[in-house]
TrEMBL record, chains A, B:
The keyword DNA-binding is assigned to this record: yes
Protein name, per record: LacI family DNA-binding transcriptional regulator
SMART domains referenced in this protein's UniProt entry, alphabetically: HTH_LACI
Superkingdom of source: Bacteria
Keywords: DNA-binding, Transcription, Transcription regulation
Residue ranges of domain HTH lacI-type in the record: 3-57
Record InterPro entries: HTH_LacI, LacI/GalR-like_sensor, Lambda_DNA-bd_dom_sf, Peripla_BP_I
Coiled-coil segments on the chain, per record: none
GO MF annotation: an example: transcription cis-regulatory region binding
Length: 345, 345
DNA sequence: CTGAAAGCGCTTACAG
DNA sequence: CTGAAAGCGCTTACAG
């Protein structure tokens, strides 16, 4: 601390410009000058002050990632992947969580940390299109997740309708007919789960069935406790389902805990499919069949998009992209029972 | 972007100093001046450039948190708590993961991001004392976790020996006599798990038993797969244990998966105790008894310590503190069976 | 209560 | 190939 370019320049007997050239490996520096400067740098233990560099260049090399909560392993995995992808581009990651609160999501999206971050990756739950449109020239933004917006920003998300149909089809092919949907939120149709719920309806119709809306269970959130509560309500009724498609793995795992407590067999009595493919599902007592989004691809695409937008210098995207990473079905014991290796390890 | 103090000053017809005073809510500003400036700020949509402020003040308000991996829910929870604690002090958090690699831990501890961060909270796995001593005047540092160092830095960690003894005593009180320890690392005695292993030995001796070192199972890491692999090795022997104390919950959950696959009953055949109290354990088919460190306290203490050290301006701590947050036993089905409510929810 | 000026540590045209 | 100087946008003694 305290050693500046000027100190190095003085010691090496050159101007700060020359030192700067060496530090930034500018090619046209006379070898002996470079060596002299390098020695001064080493002697003094000089390290460039990045803040100053940032101020000058107008970029910080920091991108922010805002997710609802790190406590959901899906988002922890995603954050890990984003950190790694960002480091490929020499960027570091400032992490924040919104708890899925619209107020916090708005705050983050408005870039209350502008000037510190070059760009933002946001996975919103309750944010509305109008909030995005009101965003006054903040840093470039890339959106993640199931919510859809009519706003000038890139959006990375799997095809939720198609993925949900795949999950439900799997259950139908196993002979299940009363398939519940766990995790529709107590809110408007534009909330998350909307698309997965639509997939549920479409696939049931496609198989010649009629969606039973009483099998759609609303929840407060998407945690284990929400899954457990919804499953309890479902089982307390007279006509239980023979399968459950959950909004995500946490909801599915909460539901499975209740099934186990009640002594019901998975999948014989009730089969379960989740969504996200968190590792916990592999090691559950009955391992969990789930839809596996390609998290690495999602993170990489998000960071690539963002870095590109940052380079372009525009706050909004004139031609916003909609990118669909892959999502595949991973079959485990919760739908086909023991018999094949369960952990997938 | 592009609106500076100067622009606001011009529009309001005052000097930049006055605008700065208003922005920083300096008390002695004539009300009508303040109002005029505020109007200019609003009209222009001015937002202070934090990078410039940082350069000037020499502080950024950013602290870094480096954990082995976010994929372990314990660290995800800890990160969440650190972010919240930091925001209490108006600091934001740069997150990094080390994968428990010494090289990466050294890099982080040497502050390769110095000048961007005001301080660092590091949870090391393989870092050595010499690495810390070689640290050349980086930003203030607070250490977390089971590793112990003889270095001038504050250290926040529960009393691992005492906590392990509590866990083992619980098993002994339930009548268990052959208690295995899962998760000693294939490395030196100074590695993590050392203290918990010592607690295991001490408590067995205290109960009048003799620690059976063949029941100490080494693992490569502390993940579910490590627990599953170790449990498999243990069961393939002729003399299985009647209880397992795992280094952490992930190892315990991996072990439980294997027990379930083999058709063994938990806790009747083999009881299991973990460490960390991650939510997953509450919702496992057999809910997991575990040691519950006070993560919120750990995060708060770490941030408080760090902020204090930052304020003091010293890179190292003349009188490093050793702080011991609480850690309590949480009893669930994996030791006492079904019969009481299991999820603890 | 407010202004003019220096300076935080860099990078970058502009000269030479 | 290298130097002198301006400027990124703030804050802070120093005056008045």
């Amino acid at each position: 601390m305290g050693v500046s370019l000027k100190d190095v320049a003085q010691r090496a007997g050159v101007s700060v410009k020359t030192v700067s050239n060496v530090v930034n490996s500018y090619p046209h520096v006379k070898p002996e000058t470079r060596e002299r400067v390098q020695r001064a740098i080493d002697d003094l233990g000089y390290r460039p002050n990045l803040t100053a560099r940032h101020l000058r260049k107008g970029r910080t090399g920091i991108i922010a990632l805002a997710v609802p909560e790190l406590g959901n392993p899906y988002f922890a995995d995603l954050a890990t992947a984003v950190i790694d992808a960002a480091s490929q581009h020499d960027h570091i990651v400032l992490l924040d969580h919104t708890a899925g609160l619209r107020e916090k999501e708005v705050l983050v999206s408005q870039g209350f940390r502008s000037h510190i971050i070059d760009g933002l990756i946001l996975s919103p739950i309750r944010l509305e299109t109008e909030d995005l449109l009101a965003r006054a020239g903040g840093p470039p933004l890339v959106l993640l997740g199931e919510r859809e917006y009519d706003a000038p920003y890139d959006h990375i998300a799997i095809d939720n309708v198609a993925a949900a149909r795949t999950a439900v089809r799997h259950l139908i092919e196993l002979g299940k007919r009363r398939i519940a949907f766990l995790g529709a939120r107590h809110e408007s149709l534009r909330q998350p789960a909307h698309l997965r719920l639509r997939g549920w309806r479409e696939e049931i119709r496609a198989s010649g069935g009629v969606p039973d809306e009483s099998l759609v269970l609303a929840t407060d959130g998407y945690d284990r406790r929400d899954g457990a509560a919804a499953m309890t309500r479902l089982l307390d009724r007279t006509d239980p389902p023979d399968a459950v498609f959950a909004y995500n793995d946490l909801v599915a795992l909460g539901a499975m805990r209740v099934l186990t407590e009640r002594g019901l067999r998975i999948p014989e009595d009730i089969a379960v499919v989740g969504f996200d493919d968190i590792e916990e599902g592999q090691y559950a007592a009955v391992s969990l069949t789930t839809m596996s989004p390609d998290k690495t691809a999602i993170a990489r695409l998000a960071v690539d998009c963002l870095v590109e937008r940052i380079a372009s210098g525009a706050s909004t995207a004139a031609f916003p992209r909609r990118i669909l990473p892959g999502c595949t079905l991973t079959v485990r014991e919760s739908t086909i029972g023991r018999g094949r290796p369960g952990t997938g390890a």
